[in-house]
Amino acid sequence: MAGAYDDRDGKIWMDGKLVEWRDAKVHILTHALHYASSVFEGERCYNGKIFKGVEHSIRLRKSAELLDMEIPYSVEQIEEAKYAMLKANGWTDAYVRAVAWRGAGEDMGVSAARNPVRLAVAGWEWGAYYGDAKMKGAKIDIAKWKRPSPETIPTAAKAAGLYMICTMSKHAAEAKGFSDALFMDYRGYVAECTGANIFFVKGGEVHTPLADAFLNGITRQTVIAMLREQGVTVHERHIMPDELEGFEQCWLTGTAAEVTPVGQIGPYTFEVGQLTRDTAAAYEKLVRA
Prior knowledge:
This protein is α+β, with helices and mostly antiparallel strands.
C-alpha cells in the first residue's frame, strides 16, 4: 500500500462499522481538531495476532478517562474492531492505530461535554520505523523542548496534544540529519524520544529513565520484564544528561520502534553491542511466539 494516507484502497473501522478508506472522514468542526481532545494507540500485528492488544485497549480507555472522555465501546468490542479491520484488509502483519476523539456536536468551545466520543481503528503495512538503524544504530538529536510536569498535563495518557512538541522536535532533528530527538523532562532528567522510550547499558547492567513524567510504554514494560527474567539487572531511575558520556550501549523501545539500537545522541556515541543485539532478537522472538 502506498500513497497519501487519505487516498488508499481498503477498509477502516469507524463508529461500529467498516467503511471505505476514503470515506473515513470527520467534520471540520470536530472538537478534537481544535482542542486536541483525542487519544490513540499504536500496535503491531504479527502473524495474525496483535501483540498485547488487550493491554493497548485498556490503556486507550484509561487515556480517554484522563481526558474526561468515556469511549462508548468496551475493551472486548475494541479488540473485535481491530481484528475486523485486519480481516477486511487481508493483513496478518500490520501496524494498528485505534483513535478516540470528541467529535462535532452541540458544543464548539473549550467545553464539549455534549459532543459524542467517537472511535476508529485503521491500519497499514509498515516496516522498520527507523529504517536501517536496526543494524547501524539510530542517530538522535537532543530536543530543545522538555517533557512537562504531571501537574500541568495528564502525562500518563497517550494523548494527541502531548505529541505537538514531538512533531516539532522530530522535524528539527531530521533537518540536521538525525533520526529522532531525545527529550529531557521538566526537571532536567533524561526522559524519552519523540515516540519511544530509551535504555542504556553500562557494565552489563541496564539503566532506563523512571517513567514518572512520561508515558510508561507497553514495549518498555515488556522489555524490562524480559531482561529481568534473563537475570539482567535493570535500574529504573532518574538519569542526568551528563551521564550519557559514560554509557556503552543504548536502544529505543516502542510499538513502532520495537527494539532499535542507538549509535549516537548529540555528541555521545554508543556501540551496537551484544546485549542490545540480544535484546532486539529476544523481543522479535517474543512478539512472534
